[in-house]
Amino acid sequence: MRIKIDRFLTSEPFISFLYRFIQFYSWTFRLKVENEKEWMEYVKNGDAVLICCWHQQIFTGICYSPTFKIFKPCIMISQSKDGEIAAGVAKRAGWNPVRGSSSRGGVGAFKKMLYNFKETKIAAHIVDGPRGPSGKVKDGVIRLAHAANAVIVPGYAFAENGWYFNSWDKFLLPKPFSKVLVRFGKALKFDKMKDKKSLEKQRKQLEEIMLPALKV
Length: 216
What we know:
This protein is an alpha/beta fold. It is built from eight helices and nine strands. The protein has one domain (2-213): 3-Layer(aba) Sandwich (Glycerol-3-phosphate (1)-acyltransferase). A hairpin with a 7-residue loop joins β7 (162-164) and β8. α2 (12-27) crosses α5 (81-92). The radius of gyration is 17 Å and the shape is globular. The N and C termini lie far apart (36 Å). The mean pLDDT is 89.
């Protein structure tokens, strides 16, 4: 029975239905976007941009993605069953999903992600995904930014009214017709890494910048 359910949930018809439902649901939001001009100018000028967000706030990226899907941004998504569903939805929303995570298929996924990133000049990274812990920025985002010679742009999502799930990330689902804000922070360009100590310093710096926007 479980196998049949998994096959249904990862089937093309179901994922297509889910994407359309999410699209319809997102259209009810009163969406406002702030500070996107700066990072878009970077991309238009041929510079690489890595947009980062918390796992808690990724749902809102689906309703915002039509704005930048012309860039065909890549994003790493885990190889789990849940990841397969998320990748299918993300692909329909204009993303180029690369399957893998730090716990499974990480090396190959990182190489593919880097290759695509260098081609498109724009990518997104979930800094504490796919399993957390919540509020802990993993060092992969720093490594990827250096490998692609990219600036890091923190991205945040807020809802005037929303549900927070009882999950490890306290996943945010804005309520229908809620005011939703997508806000981008200042672009960050870190100095070249010298050793593990400098990597950890940069990781902590990004974490400190992004933590105030996370609901814990």
